[in-house]
Each structure stands twice: as C-alpha cells, then as structure tokens.
Amino acid sequence: MEVSVVVSTYIVYTCIIVSLVAALVRAFHICPECRKDPDFFYPSRFQLVFFFASAILYLPYVIHPMSEDARLSVCLIPVLLYPITASLLIERFFITRKIDVSFVETYWMTSFPNILILLITVFAFKGGDSLSRYSLYLKLAVWITSFFMLLRLGTVLRYMFIRMRNYKDDNHPENLKRVQRNVSILTITMSFIFVLMTIGYNPVVVCILFSMMMVIALVLLLVFLSPQIKADEKVINRQKKLDISSFIESKAYCEKGINLQTLAAKFCTNAKYMSQHINSEYGTDFRSFISKLRLDEAKSLLLEDGGTRTLEDVAISIGLDGASSLVRLFNKLEGTTPNKWRNAQLNLDNSTNGGGRRRNT
Fold this sequence. Notes:
Layout: H1 3-27, H2 32-35, H3 43-56, H4 59-63, H5 68-95, H6 101-125, H7 135-169, H8 173-199, H9 203-240, H10 245-249, H11 260-266, H12 271-282, H13 286-302, H14 311-317, H15 323-333, H16 338-360
Helix pairs in contact: 1-3, 1-6, 1-9, 3-6, 5-6, 5-7, 6-7, 6-8, 6-9, 7-8, 11-12, 13-15, 14-15
C-alpha cells in the first residue's frame, strides 16, 4: 500500500474514532432541562450532529480505501463543512448579535481537525500520486477552506477580545483569565497548522502532529463541556426565577419599538427563554401580552383629566405610532373604538355619581 494511503487511512480512522467519542461524551453532558428544548438546532444538538456527520462522511473511504473518489472525498469534506459553519457564525454574530462563548469554543476546538485533514491529504497526494490530475481542484479547495477558516478565526477572535475588554472593565479577573487562555489556544492551534503547511510531506511528522492535535481537541472538549453545562443550568434557573413585574410596574411596555429581544436583554436572557416564560406565566404570546398591557394603560389615560386627552396623545404615550394604531388596538381587543369606550365609561360614571347624590339627599 502506498505511503500516502497509509497516512490517509490513519487520519480517517482517527477522525472517526475521535468524532464518535466526542459525540458520546457530548451526549452525556447535556443539561437535563435542555434535552426538553424543542429547538433541533440547540447548540448541544448541533454539536452532536456535527460529530456524527464527521464520522459518517468518512465511511466511503473505510469501505473503499484504494478508491480515488473516496480519497478525493476526504479532501473535499472540509469544503462542505466550513461554509455551513461560517454561515452559522455570521448569522449568530452579525445578525442576532448573540453568540454563546461556550458554543463557539467547543465548536472551534472540535472542528479544526477537518482543516488538518484537508491540508495533510493535499500533501499526501502531491507529486507523482495518481490523484495529481486533481491538483487544481485541491488547490481551489485549500483556498476556499482557508477563506472560511480566516473568517471564522476573525469572528471568534473579535468576539473574545470584546469579552476580554468587557471583563477587564467589569473587574472579573477569573473570566478575563479564561478568555485570555482561549485566545492563546487559538493562536497555538493556528501556529500548528501553519507549521504543518511549511514542513512539507513527511509521514511520521504528519501522523505525530495530527495525533497531538486530536488529543488536544478531545482534552479541550472535556475542559469546555463543564462550564457549558453550568451555563446552560444557570440560564434555565434564571428563566425559572424570572420576574418581569418590575417591567410592568415601570410601564416599560409603553416604550416605542419594544420587542421580545429588547425585553429579554433587560433581564440578561434571550428572546427564546423570555417567550417561553411569558407563555407559561401569562398563557399568551409576547405580542398579545404587550397589547393587553398597552390597552389597560390606554384606558386609564383616556379617562384622565375628565376624558379630555386626545387619541393621538394617548397613542404616543403608550408607544403606538398614532391615533389610527390606537383605534385598531381597541377594535381588536374591545370590539369598539376608543371614543365610544370613553363616552360609555364617562356616562356610566356620571349616572353612578348622580344616583349616589340622589340617594344621599
């Protein structure tokens, strides 16, 4: 068997074993409450899918190790995985601007072996190998994967440096030390990769370096799982203890543009947990919850100063765009207009007060 095939076989079997071990470890390290979460793409589940997919994608090579197509697929697997990873990070950071540090760390530490697979296999196939005719495609694969690697590295480092600055400002030395350690690990990881790219093809060195990287990946996975579980449990406990009575008492629901994300941010949680809490505590969704609070506030304002306040003034006071929005709110929840409701209440109050005076006389 060719030396390049021996190296590729060693790499593939190592990846399969490590991926399966990582998946099993992750499966037994999921917060019990998170198991009930209906979201299939919850970070812990997404990691499991990634681990098992990493193992399954290498099976064609195990079945036909001498097949050129199977060996080429080993090179191209990272090209399929990293665009997905990059798009996920872009969505979480640049769109939602909420990125979970444990998720990023764990995902990063367990996915970098894939870039090594690509680079090592390219070295193994270069020269007079039978796959040399694919050299152009392999070079293209290297460039594409490198682009997404740099994108991921830049995103993660940017986030970590922001965390470092925040921890430093908030005087949290333990958290600052942890993030600094993670940045150092990322730097060392990239250094290993670039060293591997410069030393050229040497089967012994390649196997030793790859084994070291895989061991580091598993160790880091185990190191980061414990704080991630604690973070998951902390979020669950915070959700259980969540009390938004202060939000109601301060009438923050009258702020214009209030939405689920801004409300969740006020309580240092995320929109998903806030939505679940409102649904469980008040039996309604967020929009209906806010609409009911605004309706009650509007009723109170409509009767102030003897019912002289304008609809426009009342609408703006409760965070609506204008009188037309207030009319729609009343029509939807009360089945009448604000003016009709106010007139009915004023007439009722007048008749009640008048009747009381006649009885007193």
